[in-house]
Amino acid sequence: MPPLWLLSLLTMFLHAYLSSAARVQTPMQVSEAIGWSAMNNPRRQMETESCRTGNPMDDCWRCDPDWEANRKMLADCSIGFGRNAIGGRDGEFYVVTDPGDDDTLNPVPGTLRYAVIQEEPLWIIFDHDMDVHLQAELVMNSYKTIDGRGANIHIADGPCITIQNVTNIIIHGIYIHDCIPGGNAWVRNSPNNYGWRSISDGDGISIFASSNVWIDHCTLSNCYDGLIDAIYGSTYITISNNYMEHHNEVMLMGHNDEFLADRNMQVTIAYNYFGEGLVQRMPRCRHGYFHVVNNIYNGWEMYAIGGSANPTINSQGNIFMASDSDSSKEAREDEWKNWNWRTDGDLMLNGAFFTPSGEEASASYARASSMVAKPASLLTDFNVSAGALNCQIGYIC
User: Fold this and answer.
1) Does 374 or 7 have the greater pLDDT score?
2) Does residue 44 sit within a domain?
3) In which pathway does it act (predicted)?
4) How many structural domains compose the chain?
5) Out of 71, 281, 284, 286, which one is annotated catalytic?
């Protein structure tokens, strides 16, 4: 969670930059995506209405004190390009009881690795707090949700998560940090298939040739390569409500400049908090279409948003607060031609600036538009709870 002093500082900047009229230029739209069982109780409905903030994903589920009984409702709450990711919604619950990972070829029942390789859809939860130290990449099968709510779950100090050649994945509410390369090992990716894995990149979450992926309310930091990378034709992805800090190359979207299949990539990056100690790639995009919307950037050492190979980047309703360094004021990478990169309703603080390029017409950004942006002035309320949440059973989360 961002420190109180930073939120106070942001609030002072906002008051200095915005008039009261600007703060109400767009009414908040709350999500009506699901109806909780709690809605049958008028008193509960009043409590639910009062805790909503305008963050459409959170307002869809967080006000329900029975969230633990209604866990799968989360699958109906995504927005953006990854909105159709259902994860393990249509399957059974699987409870992880063992944090171990001693056998990557024949995983032990009760472990996280055993759960994620199964063929059937599964909604994976945890029966207690766990530090999971993986011996090799956690290679996931399709239609899986990893749901850390109600427990303190860390995947750290080893290889981390790989989403490769699969679809419909939700990862929610876990800490991912200090990930390192792993490999030269036999790793099972389904009950009937395994393969030899060479050395991995050391990403926190690696999305490779996969679709319909939603990464939400995770806290990520200090990995060997990227925190979240999406490459090799991956698409229909939403990365939302995450807290990222202390890392160099944060997010890479696109394999390389010559890999033309990434032209179809569509990624939404929304309501994230880019915190202290971040250097670059928030994200860096190749080819494709990227909606960067309603995020808070608390400084950067090189740049916040960058890219190559003619990506379309639609930056809307973000707060860019530059660091005090005179050499780190530009929010976008200082390398562009006539690519379609725009800033629309972004709030530039402490000398930050963003140089748009390419077409100005809204039609040019249609494929990079995935949701309605809120006014940047509202973001201190939205992003105060970015990252993994401290959800307690019987209370709103």
Assistant:
1) 374
2) no
3) Glycan metabolism; pectin degradation; 2-dehydro-3-deoxy-D-gluconate from pectin: step 2/5
4) 1
5) 281
Query: Strand 319-321 and strand 289-293: pairing?
Result: unpaired
**Catalytic residue status for 281:** yes
Q: Are 359 and 31 in contact (CB under 8 A)?
A: no
Would 392 be classed as within a structural domain? no
pLDDT surpassing 50 at residue 29 = no
Task: Determine, yes or no, domain membership for 143.
Answer: yes
What percent of the chain is modeled with pLDDT above 90?
82
What confidence category does residue 217 fall into, taking pLDDT thresholds of 50, 70 and 90? very high
What's the CATH number where 194 sits? 2.160.20.10
Supply 64's token pair.
């329900």
Q: Is 33 a domain residue?
A: no
Host domain of residue 290: 52-378
Q: Between β-strands 175-177 and 219-221, what pairing exists: parallel, antiparallel or unpaired?
A: parallel
Backbone angles phi, psi at 242, to 5 degrees: -95, 155
**Each residue's pLDDT tens digit, 239-256:** 999 999 999 999 999 999
CA–CA gap between residue 225 and residue 192 (Å, rounded): 30
